[in-house]
Specification:
688 residues, 59% strand, signal, 7 helices, TonB-dep_rcpt-like, transmembrane, Maltoporin, Chain A, mainly beta, 5-stranded mixed beta sheet
């Protein structure tokens, strides 16, 4: 109820801004977000290259960074009609954004839930629930300046769970946006509607930025046939009393972010996100359908302070506190997981050998408290079936603390056209074995337009709550990754790259909602990423990307609770079985291509296609589904931005997804379901 009141208040206030503000003179407004001078690098006359920090904790271009890196800028996000992280990443080589009933399951280089997602360099995901991400409407892109992407392990600088890669959403600041930008949007199907406002001010010595947004609409329109399950006594209701028919409620999202900077040495930021997403789950080819709701309230407060010791060295102190809750309601049973994290870090940065050497080293401490981490046992659809008149799902809960102290350092040295780098991190855990992560590599530019990168790195992933529930100190998964990239960029009109990668995962474990945890094994994943961007004319940009991935290793093996038998004497007997699944790569072939045409300064048109190869159905009792694969599919998307439509500073944006309305079966949690239909979003944006 509180979320509904907040949302309605925000929506009514924000939707009036773009419609009720009088037109201002063109010379009294800022034409849009502009990067500060030190955020760009002039590589070619009149062209600017975006910079990123997550590769080395220093500002560098993706070309020069000691990692396989990419940057997606704000203008590109708008032109592509990308409003969430998952939409922004689905055309990036190496990423598969697989739809699920509750949201998006991310794969990077064939590894599900292996990406560390950051907002303003603060992690926005759960340590124990790997499938809990803020990458859909819970983290909108209205206030995004750019998205930084690293492919490959990043534990040396960013600690645990920087496993397959890192994605950091960089918000705007008062230096980027001076004035106010507001907008209202409407989307179909589902009556999606909402509003946002961004306000920034640059006072010279200080600057500030504030962003507010809200969204409401139907996330899922599939009907349910089980609407109640548990009686007043805690036992299952008779099967005839469970049945009914209803539809999910509307999903609601509220997001607030603020930033304040002073004197170039102090930065304060914070975020509050509230959301609820109702959806429908099915099993048995749709024979059973029930409702669930997920809410993931999240907030953080962050402080950064920097002091220059001299012209070559500086100290930087970072501290933040985060709180995340996962509110999961299944029909009429609700569980809430809570995570609180306190983090502090001191980093020393120094330039050596007249600028040829660059060292970054630091000390950090993290304390995380996790309460009521739920562990569902058994096969949930089996409990809901009419054949079960007795048992309710068993849900275990576990509490624990996670403490980690870390020492880390990375050094990079330039010898003419060659850059060498190496890094080391040692994490000392209170409830896990100590972990050491390393990276090393070389970057070589034999000519100005060529860049060769060879990189090796290791990382690890923290255990699932099921593993921690045993009270033991399990050894976490560890990945060894090698990357070789050759890039050619003769000028800003042409960018091409080819990247080969090899990844070996030791002590690999997957969590299945039916079978629990797989037995540890070893997987080797290898593949190729190809990417090209061509600008044949100043008004036309073309891009294409292809990812091929394969693996070798044993199938995933599970020992799971198959049935519970109530004996005549009242005792309960548990029956266990074993099952195996192939490793879940997501898809072995991904392809994307598109074009952006700007025939006028006021108009840009974008058309793109996405192809996903056939995928294995990694589902329980999959033999009952009559198929073992979800077929390959193509999807066509389009977007348009029309600037200054009614007055200077007022833009109309149109985003069309799957505009050919081609539906295809896709793997869900317990069943297959149809992919999203044709969707359309219309945005009216005003700068004043």
């Amino acid at each position: 109820m509180a979320l509904q009141i907040l949302f309605r208040f925000l929506f009514l206030g924000l939707v009036a801004l773009p419609l009720g503000v009088p037109a201002l003179a063109a010379d009294n407004r800022t034409p849009g977000p502009a990067s500060p001078a030190d955020d760009t690098l002039l590589m070619f006359v009149g062209e600017r290259t975006p910079m990123l920090r997550i590769a080395s904790r220093r500002e560098q271009s993706a070309w020069q960074a000691p990692a396989i890196a990419r940057v997606i800028e704000r203008d590109e996000l708008r032109e592509r009609g990308a409003h969430t992280l998952s939409q922004a990443l689905e055309t990036v080589p190496g990423f598969l954004m697989a739809p699920r009933e509750w949201g998006t399951l991310p794969y990077q280089r064939g590894i599900p839930n292996g990406t560390l997602f950051l907002h303003d360099t603060v992690p926005v995901q759960s340590e124990v629930n790997k499938a809990l991400h803020h990458i859909d409407h819970a983290l909108p892109l209205w206030s995004a300046k750019q998205i930084e992407i690293i492919s490959g392990p990043g534990s040396v600088l960013w600690g645990p769970d920087a496993f397959a890669g890192i994605v950091n959403l960089v918000p705007l600041t008062g230096k980027d946006l001076q004035g106010v930008e507001s907008g209202a949007f409407y989307g179909l199907p589902g009556d999606q509607h909402g509003a946002f406002v961004n306000a920034g001010y640059d006072g010279g010595l200080w600057d500030g930025f504030l962003s507010l947004s809200g969204r409401r609409g139907r996330h899922d329109s599939r009907a349910r046939n089980i609407v109640r399950f548990t009686g007043p006594d805690g036992r299952p209701l008779p099967p005839e009393q469970r049945a009914g028919r209803d539809l999910p409620d509307d999903a609601e999202y509220l997001d607030i972010y603020g930033h304040f900077a002073h004197g170039g040495w102090l930065n304060l930021s914070g975020r509050l996100a509230l959301n609820q997403t109702p959806y429908t789950m099915t099993a048995g080819n749709g024979a059973i359908a029930w409702g669930e709701t997920r809410g993931t309230p999240f907030g953080f407060l962050k402080m950064e302070a920097k002091r220059d010791l001299d012209w070559r060295s500086a100290l930087k102190l970072t501290a933040y506190y985060t709180h995340l809750a996962h509110e999961h309601e299944v029909i009429d049973r609700k569980r809430t997981l809570r995570e609180s994290t306190g983090y502090g870090e001191l980093v020393y940065d120094r330039t050596l050998f007249q600028g040829a050497g660059r060292f970054t080293g630091g000390l950090s401490h993290r304390h995380r408290t996790i309460r009521n981490a739920p562990i569902w046992t058994g096969y949930l659809p089996g409990y809901l079936a009419s054949e079960n008149p007795t048992f309710t799902p068993i849900v275990l809960e576990t509490d624990f603390h996670s403490r980690m102290t870390s020492l880390f350092g990375q050094y990079m040295h330039t010898f003419g056209p060659v850059d060498l780098f190496a890094g080391l991190r040692h994490d000392m855990h209170a409830n896990l074995a100590d972990q050491t992560s390393v990276n090393a590599g070389i970057g070589w530019s034999p000519a100005r337009s060529w860049r060769l990168k060879l990189q090796y790195g290791t990382a690890y992933r923290t255990p699932f709550s099921r593993q921690r529930h045993t009270g033991s100190h399990p050894d976490p998964e560890e990945i060894h990754s090698a990357n070789l990239q050759l890039a050619w960029q003769p000028d800003q009109r042409l960018e091409t790259s080819a990247t080969g990668f090899f990844q070996r995962i030791d002590r690999h474990v997957l969590e299945d909602p039916y079978a629990g945890l797989s037995q540890p094994n070893r997987q080797e994943i290898y593949g190729v990423e190809l990417e090209a961007r061509i600008r044949p004319h100043k008004t036309l940009s073309l891009h294409a990307g292809l990812t091929w991935t394969a693996n070798s290793g044993p199938d995933e093996k599970y020992r799971y609770l198959e049935a519970i038998v109530l004996e005549p004497d009242g005792t309960i007997r548990e029956l266990y079985g074993e099952n195996t699944y192939p490793y879940d790569l997501g898809a072995d072939l991904l392809f994307t291509a598109g074009a952006t045409w700007r025939p006028l300064n006021r108009l840009s048109l974008n058309l793109r296609t996405v192809h996903v190869a056939a995928r294995h159905l990694i589902l329980p009792r999959q033999e009952a589904l009559g198929r073992t694969q979800a077929p390959a599919f193509w999807r066509l998307d389009a977007a348009a931005v029309i600037r200054d439509v009614l007055r200077p500073g007022m833009d109309l944006e149109i985003a069309l997804r799957n505009f050919t309305d081609r539906r295809h079966p896709t793997p869900g949690t317990y069943d297959i379901f149809q992919s999203e239909p044709f969707t359309a979003t219309f945005i009216l944006r005003v700068r004043w």
